[in-house]
Every structure is written in structure tokens, then in C-alpha cells.
Amino acid sequence: MLTLVDLGVLRAVEVAADGTVEVAITPTYSGCPAMAAMRDDLVRELRGAGFERVRVRVALDPAWTTDWITPRGRAALAAAGISPPGPAPRSAGPVALTLLPARRSVRCPRCDSADVALTSEFGSTACKALYRCLACLEPFDHVKEI
Prior knowledge:
Number of strands: 7
CATH class of the largest domain: Alpha Beta
CATH superfamily of the largest domain: Fe-S cluster assembly (FSCA)
Number of domains: 2
Largest sheet: 4 strands, mixed
Radius of gyration: 18 Å
Helix content: 10-25%
Shape: elongated
CATH topology of the largest domain: GMP Synthetase, Chain A, domain 3
Distance between the termini: 21 Å
Mean pLDDT: 92
Low-confidence stretches: none
């Protein structure tokens, strides 16, 4: 459904003179439980393609942002019933901590209505919020802007 390139997680692929492939990936957020699965999938696929030596490193700087999701990735999320993120918030200085839900511009991925309501700030994963469309009444996840 969604590749690591489309998600913006795959940062670099380099082949050394000795044939070692080094891949750099960035987690979508600190403690992302999918990192081990992504690493294992990359190693399996590259070894399956004939590369015997594979090294996957985690690149934390710069931090991942939802702005790195490609247009194809955003379309794939919407096709799967997941509302893609809008532009990530920008800040030139300190970020104020609020305990209120973030204000987002969200559209239903099923009927494209903007008449939606936040059900829970946490959806099926910590990086998603749960919404309900007030037009078609369907619940859906929204990828949080980071």
C-alpha cells in the first residue's frame, strides 16, 4: 500500500566498494514500534536482490516530518481510508505546550466532506487521531501533522 520512499522514511541508499549496502531510515516519531519491521523488511528485500552485506542505520537528524510523505503516499493513505496529513506546523522558536487537541484541517477520505468531528486524539497508532465524518458517518484515522 505504502512504500518507505512514499512515507519519507527511506533517507539514503549507498553501495560501498566492497558491495555492502548501507540504508538510512528515519523513524516517524521517537519510539516508533514499526522501525524493527522496516529494518527487517529492508534487509530481507536487499538480500533477496543479491546483496549479501546490508547495514541499516537510523538517521535522527533532521527529524522526520509528515511533509516528507510523497503525493503518491498521500493518495495511497486516502485510498486506504486514512486521512493524509496537512502541512506540518512551523515554529521559529520555542513551541508552546497545550493540552488541548490540535486544530487541523481534516477531510473525510471516503466522501471528501470537511464536516468531521474529532473522536479521540489517539487512533489506531499514536501518530494518528480518530475522527468521524458527520456527512457519511464513517470513522477514520487521520495522520497527525508532525
